[in-house]
Structure to design on (110 residues):
């Protein structure tokens, strides 16, 4: 599920479907806002996180991406983010935030 909201329209709408696909469809519907944030906290598998990061980077290269559960001992979220940064590192700055579950903020260098 994904939620969409803008500063001028602060209401929240619940949308059903594949998270990244639905979120990117909403991003397009809103006209590809220059100031966008995507929050990843779904399937924490390496494959899912990698797919989500790649699709967001391709469709919304100026968006900030927050990735949750990077410190979870069983999930592969941290590895997926590190591998993404090794491939796309010049395009994004990262800030690993200290928390129990772990979180990383990725924002475009542009």
């Amino acid at each position: 599920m994904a939620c969409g909201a803008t500063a001028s329209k602060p209401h929240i709408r619940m949308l059903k479907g594949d998270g990244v696909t639905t979120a990117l469809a909403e991003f397009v519907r809103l006209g590809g806002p220059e100031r966008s944030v995507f929050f990843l906290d779904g399937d924490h598998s390496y494959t899912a996180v990698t797919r989500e990061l790649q699709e967001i980077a391709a469709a919304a290269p100026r968006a900030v991406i927050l990735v949750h559960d990077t410190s979870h001992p069983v999930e592969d979220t941290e590895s997926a983010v590190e591998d993404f940064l090794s491939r796309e590192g010049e395009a994004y700055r990262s800030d690993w935030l200290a928390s129990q579950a772990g979180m990383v903020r990725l924002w475009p260098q542009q």
Remarks:
- The domain at 34-108 is CATH 3.30.110 (Translation Initiation Factor IF3).
- The mean pLDDT is 85.
